[in-house]
Write a structure and sequence with these properties.
alpha/beta; 2-enoyl-CoA Hydratase, Chain A, domain 1; 4-stranded parallel sheet; 3-stranded mixed sheet; 7 helices; 7 strands; delta(3)-delta(2)-enoyl-CoA isomerase activity; (3S)-3-hydroxyacyl-CoA dehydrogenase (NAD+) activity; Peroxisomal bifunctional enzyme; enoyl-CoA hydratase activity; Enoyl-CoA_hydra/iso
Length: 164
Amino acid sequence: SLAVLQALEDGLKKADADPSVKAVMICGENGKFSAGADIRGFSSPKRHGAALGPIVSLIESSEKPVVAAIEGVALGGGLEVALGCHYRIAHAKARMGLPEVTIGLLPGAEGTQRLPRLIGVPAALDMITTGKHIPATEALKLGLIDEIVEENTIEAAVRLANKV
């Protein structure tokens, strides 16, 4: 939603400007990182405000480490947000993917560029063209995430942020 996009942008800019902030952690709510965009908004008249692509680039260009704490799902734009982060931790039950291709859309926030850089072209093409959701164990093997945890994902992300 526009509210989430605006909150991400405002929060990151505030954190980057605050010298007491040493790292940023991005998480979802209610056990889900993000299921991506609400496709009903795609047919709405032109919206004004934050757009996902520039916000993911803002995350990626942050001078402070940004850690994604992935619980539940990181799909579509949600995975693209995670791809912009410098580090990604996922709960063992998390699933990730770019499912928009199954309804005829390509990922629109540069996920098609970031994913191949991270996991290689063959694996990225498979994810991008099939829309399949992969479990955290496969994401770790591919290099999509840095760590899998069984416990509290947010606490683990904070530990990693403190370490880096």
